[in-house]
Structures are given as C-alpha cells and as structure tokens.
Amino acid sequence: MREDKQGFVKRVKLVLISDPRSNVEDIEYISNYEKSRLEVVEIKYQGGGKARINVTANSLGAIFREIGAEVYGAGATGRF
C-alpha cells in the first residue's frame, strides 16, 4: 500500500503544481517519518512555507481531502 500512496501523492502533486493559485512547489509522501512509523505528507510552498500532515492509515481519498484542505481550505485535520 505504501507504493500506492506514494504514487498517488506524486500524481496529486502534479495537479497542484499546475494550478498557480495553490502556490505549491513540492509535495512528498514520507513513510516511517523520523523513524516513528508515521506516514506524513509534506507540502512545500513557493516562498518557503511548509506544512506536514499525518496521514497514517488514511485511505487515498482521505489523503486527497487532507491535502486539499491544507492547500485550499482552513488547514488539514492531521496537520502538525
């Protein structure tokens, strides 16, 4: 499943980078974040901003909602 999540996040990244309103520069899926078994999506914005979202055990749909909420909404539920 890790490979599915990693590939999914890469595809979402391509869509968000193509939207100039998102200000997204890069998105990365990190499994075993800091050796803690957490699954994290890290979003880097143009200008240097950064957000990390805990997506441990989330489905692909939940990951998509979290990324969308962070980029376009009021912030992801799993943000830390």
Descriptive report:
There is one protein chain. A 3-stranded antiparallel sheet has the order 1-2-3, with helices on one face. It contains 2 helices and 3 strands. A hairpin with a 4-residue loop joins strand 1 and strand 2 (38-45). With 80 residues, it is of the alpha+beta class. The longest helix has 16 residues, at 2-17.
Chart the SSEs and their pairings:
Layout: H1 2-17, E1 24-33, E2 38-45, E3 50-54, H2 60-72
Antiparallel strand pairs: 1-2, 2-3
Descriptive key words:
3 strands, 36% helix, 2 helices, 80 residues, alpha+beta, globular
If you average the pLDDT, what whole number results? Answer: 95
N-to-C series of helices and strands:
HEEEH
Proportion of residues in helical segments: 25-40%
Count of individual beta strands: 3
What is the makeup of the main sheet?
3 strands, antiparallel
Brief summary:
The chain is an alpha+beta fold and 80 residues long. It contains 2 helices and 3 strands; from the N terminus they run αβββα.
